[in-house]
Design goal:
Layout (H helix, E strand, L loop, with lengths): L4 H4 L8 H23 L2 H24 L5 H22 L7 H19 L18 H7 L2 H18 L2 H24 L4 H4 L12 H10 L1
Helix pairs in contact: 2-3, 2-4, 3-4, 4-5, 5-8, 6-7, 7-8
């Protein structure tokens, strides 16, 4: 099994094709979103979103196919996903003010709550959230299985772009709120691996008197 931190710690290759594509996604898409904003041209905003989705799928595919999955790659992918989606919606909102409330709620759920949950794989020494079924199959199913990923990161945007209606997004937002609340509570109750649990219970810091501290410095 190649998904534990103990087996990959110190052996991760940061320079590989998946990581290069993730960084390229950021380098290419950010200027597109910036140009879309400065020119007030929604076409380039959608180009940026489309490239983000395409390259996001490509880096994940190559990571699995080439056996180049790394925890570093998983983390920059998580950051890139939220940054690209946030920039898209920042550009999208001025021309669709009726969607302000649902978009802000979605960005809070996706950009903060889901970001926190997506990084919990590190506590179990896994390579990415894709392997969270090793810690809890139910949490993985609702969040990082293929259907779970679509519901968590794609469904809301599809509803926004196809309906343009705030009301149409309510079921997706309610579903996300329920899933994230359930996930947060369930992950909080999961038992950590012994080696990682010990990190949460470090020995108390030594308490030195001022005299002992000064004596130690003078000896040094």
């Amino acid at each position: 099994m190649k998904t534990t931190a103990s087996q990959t710690l110190g052996r991760e290759a940061l320079v590989n094709w998946p990581n290069a594509i993730t960084l390229a996604r950021i380098i290419i898409c950010l200027p597109l979103f910036a140009f879309a904003s400065s020119s007030q041209n929604s076409f380039w905003n959608f180009v940026g979103l489309g490239l983000h989705w395409a390259l996001d799928g490509l880096d994940g595919y190559l990571a699995r196919t080439l056996n180049q999955e790394t925890r570093f790659g998983a983390q920059i992918d998580i950051i890139a996903d939220r940054a690209m989606v946030a920039f898209f919606y920042i550009n999208y909102l001025p021309t669709h003010p009726q969607l302000t409330a649902p978009i802000v709620i979605y960005l809070m759920l996706y950009g903060f709550v889901d970001y926190f949950l997506s990084n919990q794989f590190m506590q179990w020494g896994l390579l990415s959230p894709n392997y969270f079924y090793q810690a809890d199959p139910t949490v993985w199913l609702f969040n990082w299985s293929t259907p779970g990923k679509f519901v968590n990161s794609g469904l809301f945007t599809v509803l926004v772009l196809t309906t343009g209606s705030a009301l149409a997004t309510v079921p997706a937002l309610l579903g996300l709120l329920i899933v994230k609340s359930f996930t947060f509570a369930r992950v909080h109750r999961l038992a950590l691996p012994a080696a990682w649990a010990n990190l949460h219970q470090p020995p108390p810091e030594p308490r030195l008197s001022l005299g002992e501290l000064l004596a130690g410095r003078s000896r040094a």
